[in-house]
Amino acid sequence: YILQLHSNSDKGDGSVKYILTGEGAGTIFIIDDTTGDIHSTKSLDREQKTHYVLHAQAIDRRTNKPLEPESEFIIKVQDINDNAPKFTDGPYIVTVPEMSEMGTSVLQVTATDADDPTYGNSARVVYSILQGQPYFSVDPKTGVIRTALHNMDREAREHYSVVIQAKDMAGQVGGLSGSTTVNITLTDVNDNPPRFPQKHYQLYVPESAQVGSAVGKIKANDADTGSNADMKYTIINGDGSGVFSISTDKETREGILSLKKPLNYEKKKSYTLNIEGANTHLDFRFSHLGPFKDVTMLKIIVGDVDEPPLFTMPSYVMEVYENAKIGTAVGTVTAQDPDTDNNLVRYFIDHKTEEDRYFTIDASTGTIKTAKIFDREETPWYNITVAASEIDNPELVSHVPVGVRILDVNDNPPELAGDDDVVICENAKSGQVVQTITATDKDNSANGARFHFSLDEGFSLNPNFTLRDNEDNTASILTKRRRYSRTSQDIYYLPVLISDGGVPPLSSSSTLTIRVCACERDGRVRTCHAEAFLSSAGLSTGALIAILLCVVILLAIVVLFVTLRRSKKEPLIISEEDVRENVVTYDDEGGGEEDTEAFDITALRNPSAAEELKYRRDVRPELKPAPRHHPTSSLDSIDVQEFIKQRLAEADLDPSVPPYDSLQTYAYEGHRSEAGSISSLDSATTHSDEDYNYLGDWGPEFKKLAELYGEIESERTT
């Protein structure tokens, strides 16, 4: 039951009917239309709807007319504590540094209550901690979680699970509650110094260990993690600090001990090292917990190993003269067994390279001897490798490089350097330097640095040339007379003797070829003998062959072209089967005015010169017509049109021409032109009266032309 509606018009006789409309009318709220009592049909939830607006009206049951105006009323839903507080963001994960001060804020949690905060204490929430004491605490009003202990150590405990409760009704009895979990992790700080597990260590290292190799590891423990546990290892003192070195492995945080110098058991059997491990990232807030480093002592025991023989020198350099006899001693290498047993040593050469085959070695003494004859000018240096092993243990072998320098012997005479072909001008003066010559010697400077030049004894009194030693390893060729004639003698040979300053001195003779050439006034060579000319022009034998080959190829192309052109020439008379009208083309050049075999061109050009009809002399006609005579008087008066008609009639009646149309060209201009004919066709029968004597007055340039026309005039007169 909620309420009752009543109208003043209601007499209690049931004549008034009550009607309810609005939110929830008929579904949530129902009304008794006779008494006006209103009831709810289901439970109401304030968190879903806080109030309902309804309209009520009283009407006459008989007439259905309203007895009063419609009235509005509101039904408000009163709140009760039916919703517990909730943590919408839980569960929580949070971190806090270890060793934090007590009361350090960790996290603030918030719970919400759906009840009406304005009515009673249904939505008044109070926070409390159910799990996590005594390490953490929570503010009951704000929900702020704080540390509750001093110096919480991550190394002792790292993870904590704290349960926080929120209760409404201000925490009173009967209030509803909700809870959430907060997972708290302590983060690391550098509050723990490194410590070596032991104060003394011992390490065994064989003396055969290679320099630069790792021989051992050592590690200091640090309870911290990450960069707080990074450390660096150093050797602070000890007699082995110069023999060993230590480095830090950043991944494993171990100290790697390496060998800096080779070990020798026979010289030193043990070493002592003091090794320090220190943190690289310090937190000065915790410096009172230090020092953040630790020191330990490491004793290294050197193990004895059977070692290969050791040479007294890391490398050897020896010398031997070239041309030395086979078996000549070059030098001696020495090796000893470094072990205490001091076993005997055997020497040998592997002969793996060609250079090793030039030498042999005494297996017992290590003396190296020559096995072949040397030539310093061919190979001045040899590099070989000598090996030594113990007789009792041949597998232990050591090697040493040996360099052998070949010393020079004066065994090569000096030679003339450069070209031995010299050019001299015909107009050379006496005492003129023709050429400066030099010499070369394959021997080194000790056996050939100073050269002496002279003429061969048999040609020392040469009347044409002489030689002057410049005493600077050069010599000059000088002329002894003036002017040389190329026509009388174009080549001179001059033998030159060259000796060196070696012990013993060697000499050689070379012949200079001196060519006489015609030169310009400034000394440039104009022409020489054919061979000298080609040489000065820079044409070698290969260039001449190439030029001749090009000329032969061009001649072959020309001959081939002419042959092909002749083979493709068409016949003068086309086949009889071809009866079409054609223009006959004669691809045959005539012989000019002297050609009288084919036809007389004069008859075509000058009708007055043709006394009678002339036929071709190179073709015999089958039927010879009767000759026709034309009076000279008619030819003199004939015009061009009549002339062409006559020639057309003659061509039609001529049985010697081809039996179809042909094209004939007449260059006849007509008769009795005032200008006269400029053609040279009539010059065969007429002579010019021109006088060419005036050509002699034109000067010496036209002398030949005047003589030519003078001879023509004399022939005409004769």
Automatic annotation (TrEMBL):
The keyword Iron does not apply. Gene3D superfamilies: Cadherins, TCF3-CBD (Catenin binding domain). It is found in: Cell membrane. Residues 7-87, 88-196, 197-311, 312-416, 424-533 form the Cadherin domain. It comes from the Eukaryota. The keyword Transferase does not apply. GO terms for biological process: adherens junction organization; calcium-dependent cell-cell adhesion via plasma membrane cell adhesion molecules; cell migration; cell morphogenesis; cell-cell adhesion mediated by cadherin; cell-cell junction assembly; homophilic cell adhesion via plasma membrane adhesion molecules. The chain crosses the membrane at residues 543-564. One of its GO terms (cellular component) is adherens junction. SMART domains: CA. It is a single-pass type I membrane protein. Keywords: Calcium, Cell adhesion, Cell membrane, Cleavage on pair of basic residues, Glycoprotein, Membrane, Metal-binding, Repeat, Signal, Transmembrane, Transmembrane helix. GO terms for molecular function: beta-catenin binding; cadherin binding; calcium ion binding. InterPro entries: Cadherin (IPR039808), Cadherin-like_dom (IPR002126), Cadherin-like_sf (IPR015919), Cadherin_CS (IPR020894), Cadherin_Y-type_LIR (IPR000233), Catenin-bd_sf (IPR027397). Cadherins are calcium-dependent cell adhesion proteins. This is CAD18 protein.
